[in-house]
Design goal:
The protein is mainly alpha-helical. It has one domain. The protein is 43% helix and 0% strand. Helix 1 crosses helix 3. The radius of gyration is 24 Å and the shape is elongated. GO terms for molecular function: ATP binding; kinase activity. It comes from Trapa natans (Water chestnut). Keywords: ATP-binding, Kinase, Nucleotide-binding, Transferase. This is S-locus receptor kinase C-terminal domain-containing protein.
């Protein structure tokens, strides 16, 4: 499962994956260009989508470790249900936030270049 962290499209991709999984329509998440040739079973696709959703949980403590992911994919562990993804809250920054950001962005850098020219 691939998406750009922090992007709107990544967020909606996660919501779509979660919704399709919940409705038992995991195969719709597979790219149509490869779905006809897909040798993976519906159960394998469902497992991969579920593990992908677990790996992208909002809270880091809710995400499985890599050894746990390997165990989940190999069938050694039962997969817990992922929590629904949350949409980021978009808000306009306050005047105080803007002022603080502007102050943090200001810096003073100086550099001295000296060129020594030697005569012939």
């Amino acid at each position: 499962m691939s998406f750009m962290p922090g992007s709107e499209s990544g967020c909606f991709c996660m919501v779509q994956a979660w919704q399709l999984r919940r409705e038992g329509r995991d195969m719709e998440f597979v790219d149509e260009a490869i779905s006809a040739d897909c040798i993976a079973s519906r159960q394998e696709v469902a497992k991969c989508v579920q593990v992908g959703l677990l790996c992208t949980q909002d809270q880091p403590m809710d995400r499985p470790s890599m050894p746990t992911v390997v165990s989940m994919l190999s069938g050694e562990l039962d997969l817990p249900d992922p929590k629904p993804p949350t949409l980021p809250s978009f808000h306009s920054p306050s005047d105080h936030e803007i002022h603080s950001q502007q102050e943090a962005a200001l810096s003073s850098n100086t550099m001295t270049l000296t060129r020594i020219i030697e005569g012939r």
